[in-house]
Amino acid sequence: MPIYEAVVLALGMIRAQKLKSFFSLVGAFIGVMFLIAVVSIVKGMDKYVQEDFAAKIFGINTFTVSRRPGFHAGPVSQAQRRAWWRRPEIYEDDFHAIRAALPSEYLVAIESGNQAEGVVGTKHSSYIQVSGVSEDLFRIRDYRIAEGRLFTPQEISHAANVVVIGKDVADSFFTGEDPVGRSIRIAGFPYTVVGVIEKQGNVFGISLDRFAIAPYTSEMKKVVNPHKVVDGIIVKASSPAGMQDAMDRVEGLMRSRHHLRPEDDDDFHLDTQEDVLSFWAKISNVLYTALPMLVGISLIVGGIVLMNIMLMAVAERTREIGIRKSLGARRRDIMAQFLVEAATLSTTGAVLGIVAGLLLARLVQAVSPLPMGVAPGWIAVGVVLGVLVGIVSGVYPASRAAKLDPVVALRFE
Amino acid sequence: MSEPVIRTVALTRDYPMGGETVRALRGVDLEIQPNEYVAIMGPSGSGKSTLMNLIGCLDTPTSGQYWLAGTEVSRMSDDELARVRNRQIGFVFQTFNLLPRASALHNVELPLVYAGLPARERRQRAEQALGSVGLGDRMEHKPAELSGGQRQRVAIARALVTEPSIILADEPTGNLDSTTSEEIMKILEELHRTRGQTIVMVTHEADIARHAARVVTLHDGMVSSDRLKAA
Question: What is the ipTM of this complex?
Answer without folding.
Answer: 0.94
